Amino acid sequence: MGDAGGNDDGLDAAVNWLTNYVLPKIRALTRRDVPDNLWKKCPGCEQMLFHRELAASLEVCRHCGHHFRIGGEARLKMLFDGGAFDKLELPKVSADPLRFRDRKRYSERLREGQAALGPGSDALVLAEGRIGGTAAVVAAFDFAFMGGSMGMAVGEGLVAAARRAVEHEAALIVVPASGGARMQEGILSLMQMPRTVIAADMVKEAGLPYIVLLTDPTTGGVSASFAMLGDITLAEPGAIIGFAGARVIEETIREKLPERFQRAEYLLEHGIVDQVVPRGELHATLGCILALLREPYRAQATLPALPSPAAQQPE
Hints:
It is a single chain. By secondary structure, the chain is of the alpha/beta class. The chain folds into two domains: 34-68, no CATH class; 70-296, 2-enoyl-CoA Hydratase, Chain A, domain 1, CATH 3.90.226. The chain has helices spanning 2-30, 51-56, 72-79, 106-117, 152-167, 186-190, 192-205, 220-223, 246-253, 264-269, 282-294, 296-302, 309-312; strands spanning 39-41, 48-50, 85-88, 124-131, 134-141, 171-175, 210-214, 232-235, 275-276. The chain has a seven-stranded mixed beta sheet. A hairpin with a 6-residue loop joins strand 1 and strand 2. The termini are far apart. The mean pLDDT is 89.
């Protein structure tokens, strides 16, 4: 029995040595720091997408074409020629005018958003540069900042972008991605709706192009104001565009909504959107539109020549 106990003790010691000494050494030699976000699952086709391939395709799934949401900075780099632009600062506004609090203080929510995107940031980024060689001011929303909600900072930013476009005789391109008005600013948020309409009119009255690119999602007070006033309205594939959510509408009218209701393609079929443009074609499409609107003679020179009427006559 004594020998058996000794064998058990020896076995336990060997197991402990392997577990506590050998395995940690092996793990230390073979361990590699691998980030947790190397792969992303596509909500459209459920394929796993490698982050480098997804970035190379502008955050569009190569299997089903699903367009992932992207931030404002990424949007600017994608739209401007060569990704070069001059960023504009947002006007200063009162940080917490109503001293609002729900589960958190509003001021705390702002700090959390600015910690991720930078000091003084909000749901809108502004920049100026050239698209297809034509001067343009771009106001792009960032859904990651409190759902892209429109508060005073966003309203002031859109007014500032309109003034900048008029001052420099540039086109204004707005890229909304928003859940609507920012409830933490109450009536002050709702007041931004007419102010942004005035901003759009300011650009139009100056004879400058006002183009809206609707992305996922464009809803609430944003869709009920400046987002639907573009001289030309483009949309990304599959983007949700509307005022109230589909479930709320169904419960209100007590009817089943059509398939793909509030999707960009549905709105195109019903004349609300002028064109649905895949993300990879947006830069070229906007460049062509701006050239036609701002420099029609230059744009005409790049179009293929039509055959003369005489050449079309049968012999």
